[in-house]
Specification:
Order of helices and strands: EEEEHEHH
Shape: flat
Strand content: 25-35%
Largest sheet: 3 strands, antiparallel
Strand order of the largest sheet: 3-4-5
Helix content: 40-55%
Distance between the termini: 63 Å
Oligomer: single chain
């Protein structure tokens, strides 16, 4: 939601994408960035102030959605359809990186065998 230039309700997260050498991919877990406001005791607040540090306002952790959850299904659908080209591009880029890493590892292994 945007109100006069201020954004509210921004949601961020990650999706686990498994891929194969032929470029095919599947969607696994989907998690959203979760946050919980922390309640600090007066003692903790004073101790932090005396130490010259501030206490975090929130604890953050990823929250994995259940596969049957409506939000999971909506995100899954977007990844499969609306964002498919983006996901496919990321998979192709990762496959190229994987091939490059494998070639470097093989070259390092050959050099090590010759030196040994």
């Amino acid at each position: 939601m945007i109100d006069r230039g201020f954004e509210a309700g921004d949601i961020a997260g990650v999706a686990e994408i498994s891929y194969h050498r032929d470029g095919e991919w599947t969607i696994g877990a989907i998690a959203l960035d979760g946050a919980r406001r922390l309640q600090h005791t007066p003692h903790d607040t004073l101790a932090a102030a005396h130490a010259g540090r501030t206490l975090p306002a929130f604890e953050r952790k990823p929250v994995t959605l259940d596969e049957g959850d409506t939000l999971y299904l909506r995100i899954y659908h977007r990844l499969e359809h609306e964002w498919r080209d983006r996901v496919q591009s990321a998979v192709i880029e990762q496959l190229a990186d994987d091939r490059e890493s494998l070639a470097e590892e093989r070259a390092d292994h050959r050099r090590a065998r010759r030196a040994g």
